[in-house]
């Protein structure tokens, strides 16, 4: 059998469980599923072996009859799953630095949204750009994420708010995935805000949701441009009833859902989304502890950068999420308003400092659980059969990745079995 890459003399963060070893030998019982002095073999886009060997690498290779194309002595570095940023809005036009100044002078995010700034201001910038110009503005933000070892990224629409511009955003997101060594999952977020042309009409909010459900979403589905559907369930977004209308339309079209829920107030959007088998419920600072047990089957996506940038005080119910074993993911939420942050490692640091996660929980949140929030079962861990999306780091211990801010870059990254930039 042909092995494309053999990585030798390496320490692994597998996120596999010690009691379910399978072919993974020597995995420890710590929170990283760590496995030291190990070997990883990659064939095509998959990991075919990961773990410790009973004897020498040479004996093992010849006993298996493996033909190794490239061999890499990692010199005791740590190999982690490639990072997964499961919640971004990185395709947008312009920026909102002026709004940042307003907020520093005391205006709230909601005040600014109500007076026509916020999301709607990014909408006008996004609408006016050509497809190529939108791609050119968005690409550097994607590249910042890739530099840190991101191999899967979710990108939402939601700054178009008309069919044409929403489709344009989703096409740009997909094109970014074709131009760069990263898996892009796209999410349609038509229900992000009410665009100005609907705001002036009576019942504008409901008319807009009808338009989302009757025109935009069916067209997005027909063109197969979205992998999931998201909503903003909030006082300045949409009511739970309107979000439910979107969820029902998505279900009819066979698309999984997610939700921006309980970011600024508790409208019970997370429980509603979970009833519709949401892949994830995102933000959830205002989620009631008593509602956590109703979230079985979904993933709680924590977005500490938005909490940080809005100088919020209300934290998500982390202890209850742990108690009920709800998987926690962490993402950047990279967007022009609440989270102008193109660094998943920084979000990992923030989720520890601001929300009290452990460095292991943060790394799992930015790998295995991030993948879960996108419905990806074979991404985010290091085990035979999983995708060969990997990042190699010159560190002494995996806790370093959440501890440092702008300390680390991976020394090598594999995306679907291919060494990046080679
Ligand atoms: O995830 N909450 C809604 N959406 C984004 C913010 C979008 C914006 O302000 O442009 C978020 O925080
Ligand atoms: Fe968001």
Automatic annotation (TrEMBL):
<comment type="similarity">
    <text>Belongs to the metallo-dependent hydrolases superfamily. HutI family.</text>
</comment>
<feature type="binding site">
    <location>
        <position position="159"/>
    </location>
    <ligand>
        <name>4-imidazolone-5-propanoate</name>
    </ligand>
</feature>
<dbReference type="InterPro" id="IPR011059">
    <property type="entry name" value="Metal-dep_hydrolase_composite"/>
</dbReference>
<keyword id="KW-0963">Cytoplasm</keyword>
<feature type="binding site">
    <location>
        <position position="87"/>
    </location>
    <ligand>
        <name>Zn(2+)</name>
    </ligand>
</feature>
<dbReference type="Pfam" id="PF01979">
    <property type="entry name" value="Amidohydro_1"/>
</dbReference>
<dbReference type="GO" id="GO:0050480">
    <property type="term" value="F:imidazolonepropionase activity"/>
</dbReference>
<keyword id="KW-0369">Histidine metabolism</keyword>
<feature type="binding site">
    <location>
        <position position="159"/>
    </location>
    <ligand>
        <name>N-formimidoyl-L-glutamate</name>
    </ligand>
</feature>
<feature type="binding site">
    <location>
        <position position="260"/>
    </location>
    <ligand>
        <name>Fe(3+)</name>
    </ligand>
</feature>
<dbReference type="GO" id="GO:0019557">
    <property type="term" value="P:L-histidine catabolic process to glutamate and formate"/>
</dbReference>
<keyword id="KW-0378">Hydrolase</keyword>
<feature type="binding site">
    <location>
        <position position="333"/>
    </location>
    <ligand>
        <name>Fe(3+)</name>
    </ligand>
</feature>
<feature type="binding site">
    <location>
        <position position="260"/>
    </location>
    <ligand>
        <name>Zn(2+)</name>
    </ligand>
</feature>
<dbReference type="InterPro" id="IPR005920">
    <property type="entry name" value="HutI"/>
</dbReference>
<feature type="binding site">
    <location>
        <position position="338"/>
    </location>
    <ligand>
        <name>4-imidazolone-5-propanoate</name>
    </ligand>
</feature>
<comment type="pathway">
    <text>Amino-acid degradation; L-histidine degradation into L-glutamate; N-formimidoyl-L-glutamate from L-histidine: step 3/3.</text>
</comment>
<feature type="binding site">
    <location>
        <position position="87"/>
    </location>
    <ligand>
        <name>Fe(3+)</name>
    </ligand>
</feature>
<feature type="binding site">
    <location>
        <position position="335"/>
    </location>
    <ligand>
        <name>N-formimidoyl-L-glutamate</name>
    </ligand>
</feature>
<feature type="domain" description="Amidohydrolase-related">
    <location>
        <begin position="79"/>
        <end position="418"/>
    </location>
</feature>
<keyword id="KW-0408">Iron</keyword>
<keyword id="KW-0862">Zinc</keyword>
<feature type="binding site">
    <location>
        <position position="96"/>
    </location>
    <ligand>
        <name>4-imidazolone-5-propanoate</name>
    </ligand>
</feature>
<dbReference type="GO" id="GO:0005737">
    <property type="term" value="C:cytoplasm"/>
</dbReference>
<feature type="binding site">
    <location>
        <position position="89"/>
    </location>
    <ligand>
        <name>Fe(3+)</name>
    </ligand>
</feature>
<dbReference type="GO" id="GO:0005506">
    <property type="term" value="F:iron ion binding"/>
</dbReference>
<keyword id="KW-0479">Metal-binding</keyword>
<comment type="function">
    <text>Catalyzes the hydrolytic cleavage of the carbon-nitrogen bond in imidazolone-5-propanoate to yield N-formimidoyl-L-glutamate. It is the third step in the universal histidine degradation pathway.</text>
</comment>
<feature type="binding site">
    <location>
        <position position="337"/>
    </location>
    <ligand>
        <name>N-formimidoyl-L-glutamate</name>
    </ligand>
</feature>
<dbReference type="InterPro" id="IPR006680">
    <property type="entry name" value="Amidohydro-rel"/>
</dbReference>
<feature type="binding site">
    <location>
        <position position="263"/>
    </location>
    <ligand>
        <name>4-imidazolone-5-propanoate</name>
    </ligand>
</feature>
<dbReference type="GO" id="GO:0008270">
    <property type="term" value="F:zinc ion binding"/>
</dbReference>
<feature type="binding site">
    <location>
        <position position="333"/>
    </location>
    <ligand>
        <name>Zn(2+)</name>
    </ligand>
</feature>
<feature type="binding site">
    <location>
        <position position="192"/>
    </location>
    <ligand>
        <name>4-imidazolone-5-propanoate</name>
    </ligand>
</feature>
<feature type="binding site">
    <location>
        <position position="89"/>
    </location>
    <ligand>
        <name>Zn(2+)</name>
    </ligand>
</feature>
<protein>
    <recommendedName>
        <fullName>Imidazolonepropionase</fullName>
        <ecNumber>3.5.2.7</ecNumber>
    </recommendedName>
</protein>
<dbReference type="GO" id="GO:0019556">
    <property type="term" value="P:L-histidine catabolic process to glutamate and formamide"/>
</dbReference>
<dbReference type="InterPro" id="IPR032466">
    <property type="entry name" value="Metal_Hydrolase"/>
</dbReference>
């Amino acid at each position: 059998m042909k092995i494309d890459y053999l990585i030798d003399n390496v320490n692994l963060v597998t996120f596999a469980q010690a009691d379910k070893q399978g072919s993974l030998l020597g995995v420890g019982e710590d929170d990283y599923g760590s496995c030291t002095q190990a070997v990883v073999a990659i064939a095509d886009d998959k990991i075919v072996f990961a773990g410790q060997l009973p004897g020498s690498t040479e004996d093992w290779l010849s006993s298996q009859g493996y033909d190794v194309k490239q061999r890499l002595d990692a010199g005791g570095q740590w190999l982690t799953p490639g990072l997964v940023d499961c919640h971004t809005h990185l395709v947008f036009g312009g920026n909102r630095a002026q709004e940042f100044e307003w907020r520093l002078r005391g205006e709230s995010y909601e005040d600014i949204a109500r007076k026509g700034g916020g999301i709607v201001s990014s909408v006008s910038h996004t609408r006016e750009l050509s497809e190529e110009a939108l791609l050119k503005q968005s690409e550097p933000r994607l590249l910042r994420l890739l530099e840190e070892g991101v191999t899967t990224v979710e990108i939402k629409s939601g700054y178009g708010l008309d069919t044409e511009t929403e489709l344009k955003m989703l096409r740009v997101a997909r094109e970014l995935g074709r131009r760069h060594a990263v898996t892009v999952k796209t999410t349609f977020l038509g229900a992000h805000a009410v665009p100005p042309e609907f705001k002036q009409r009576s019942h504008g909010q409901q008319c807009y949701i009808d338009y989302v459900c009757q025109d935009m979403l069916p067209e997005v589905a027909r063109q197969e441009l979205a992998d999931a559907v998201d909503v903003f369930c909030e006082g300045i977004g949409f009511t739970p009833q309107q979000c439910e209308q979107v969820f029902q339309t998505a279900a009819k079209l066979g698309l999984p859902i997610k939700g921006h829920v309980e970011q600024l107030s508790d409208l019970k959007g997370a429980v509603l989304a979970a009833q519709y088998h949401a892949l994830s419920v995102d933000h959830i600072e205002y989620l009631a502890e008593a509602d956590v047990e109703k979230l079985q089957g979904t993933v709680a996506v924590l977005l500490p950068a938005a909490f940080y940038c809005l100088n919020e005080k209300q934290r998500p119910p982390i202890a209850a999420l742990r108690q009920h074993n709800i998987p926690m993911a962490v993402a950047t939420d990279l967007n022009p308003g609440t989270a102008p942050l193109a660094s998943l490692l920084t979000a990992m640091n923030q989720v520890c400092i601001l929300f009290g996660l452990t460095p292991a929980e943060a790394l799992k949140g930015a790998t295995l659980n991030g993948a879960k929030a996108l419905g990806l079962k074979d991404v985010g861990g290091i085990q035979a059969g999983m995708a060969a999306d990997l990042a190699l780091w010159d560190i002494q211990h995996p806790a370093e990745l959440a501890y440092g801010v702008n300390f680390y870059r991976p020394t090598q990254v594999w995306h679907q079995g291919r060494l990046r930039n080679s």
